[in-house]
Amino acid sequence: TGLKEAYKDRFLIGAAINTAIASGKHPDITEIIKRDFSSVTSENDMKWGSVRTADGGWKWEAADHFMNFALQNNLHAVGHTLAWHSQIPQSVFKDRSGEYVKPAELIKKMEEHITTIVGRYKGKLQAWDAVNEAIGDDNQMRKSHYFNVLGEEFIDRTFHLAHEVDPKAHLMYNDYNIERPGKREACVEMLKRLKKRGVPVHGLGIQAHVAVDGPSIADIEQSILAFAELGLRVHFTELDVDVLPQVWNLPVAEISTRFEYRPERDPFKDGLTQEMNDKLSSRYEELFKLFIKHKDKIDRVTLWGVSDDASWLNGFPIRGRTAYPLLFDRKHQPKDAYQRVLAL
Ligand code: G3I
Description:
single chain, 344 residues, 8-stranded parallel beta barrel, 14 helices, globular, binds ligand G3I
């Protein structure tokens, strides 16, 4: 037995899956998912840019593969995402001359988009990361195209539309760095405004792209408490643990702008040192201890991928870098971190 069995009375344990996994191209990963995970999230295949063609039509193949994978393996399934400023064509927001479209036009496009995709998977997907990353790194509402055209109303509209189409779907607001003070408070304030306006938001997704040495367990715990206090279910939606930025001791944003990948600077290009592997395992253990402590508030903990070879962090914040953030290694074998999480 694996994680799925060990965590069945605590919370759902999930993994984001990519197009190849969802279409059954990695049978060994499929077996891992059947044994260890009770939930899956679509890593890319349900984003606007993935399901829409350039002329505004639809392409469903990859999204349907994801849905079928979840149904066949009896997995709780999370759709990702209905409104996000990234992986969406500019033409949704701007006309040919580069001017923003009128609010009514964007609303119409959102209506068509959300009604169609939520309707297609109604009763099959249990939850949606409805709105993703609406708060910026300055802790203000992000000045995305959505926001510039509609203001905060784009958030209200997204939740209302999804809820009307599939009243049983669990709808979440999802963001990163909200396990840290600053952005946490901004998020709490935004959620309060949404609740006051009667927006049907049911859950809060803390992405949790964390590092070996931060944010602190105390900070993460404060976020769990703050969001639960608003009456929302808490989800950890994109958990992974990075080892690299700490080595260079610089903030991620600075690394991504200042560094080209140079293998000689990457101490882990051929594998993790034992010391760093131990740190990674301990970090996973302390995180899951915290999650278990608050299992009454937490519905689900989802990792952003199954094995290190398929992690988005391999190209971020430095193109070409090698990343080790997940519970299974590049040969798809369980890591020490997996054993530690399993043993709790
Ligand atoms: O599918 C194309 C492929 O046809 C093409 O040949 C290839 C060449 O670049 O690109 C492929 O698309 C890539 C896609 O991942 C699938 O692999 C995109 O370039 C790449 O940008 C995209 O990255 C995804 C990223 O979101 C996009 O912003 C990552 O896989 C995905 O893990 C990441 O996930 C996000 C969440 O949605 C939101 N929270 C943060 C998280 C991590 O950035």
